[in-house]
Design a protein that fits this description.
This protein is α/β, with parallel strands linked by helices and 155 residues long. The chain contains 4 helices and 5 strands; from the N terminus they run βαβαββαβα. It is globular, with a radius of gyration of 14 Å. It starts with 10 loop residues before the first strand and ends with a helix.
Length: 155
């Protein structure tokens, strides 16, 4: 994460997911908590939910140098494992109920803003409708939250 944000001047963090599907809510939960920890005019925190594409104009107007998309992503690991990847690298592997794939959204934002884009994916364990977030994902959520708080604090 540090190397990704090394030359960042304006950062957008987008949390993606559904509150109704257990571990799929991890992205939105992280950005909700991050809002209370990071207050900087150079950081825009977006709760994208299941339709993050609805926030593209707000993101474009912010003129970010870097964009971090946070979502539950099935990359065949243990629940709670974390991956940092180019969104295209796990295209089609997101488990969320998004209206468009994150790889398409990332491509559009890259084209429109020129920003560097990274997916921070957390392997879900349970995503059934009405399920709760599992302990392994909660633990990873807290570690990611602490890491982002440190990386995004004004220097």
């Amino acid at each position: 994460m540090s190397s990704f944000l090394n030359r960042a001047t304006r950062v957008v963090v987008v949390g993606v997911g559904s509150d109704f599907r257990g571990d799929d809510s991890v992205g939105v939960e992280i950005v909700r908590k991050l809002r209370n920890r990071v207050r900087s005019p150079n950081v825009l925190i977006v709760e994208g939910g299941v339709a993050p594409e609805n926030y593209t104009s707000q993101i474009r107007r912010f003129k970010p140098s870097h964009i971090i998309l946070i979502d539950a992503a099935d990359f065949g690991a243990k629940p709670g494992d974390v991956v940092f990847a180019d969104p295209a690298a796990i295209s089609g592997r997101s488990i969320s109920t998004h209206t468009i794939p994150l790889s398409v959204l990332a491509g559009y934002l890259k084209e429109q803003t020129g920003a560097e884009i990274m997916l921070l994916g957390i392997q879900p364990g349970q995503v059934e409708l009405g399920s709760k977030m599992c302990e392994a994902v909660k633990s990873s959520m807290n570690r990611v939250l602490d890491m982002l708080t440190e990386e995004l604090k004004p220097k």
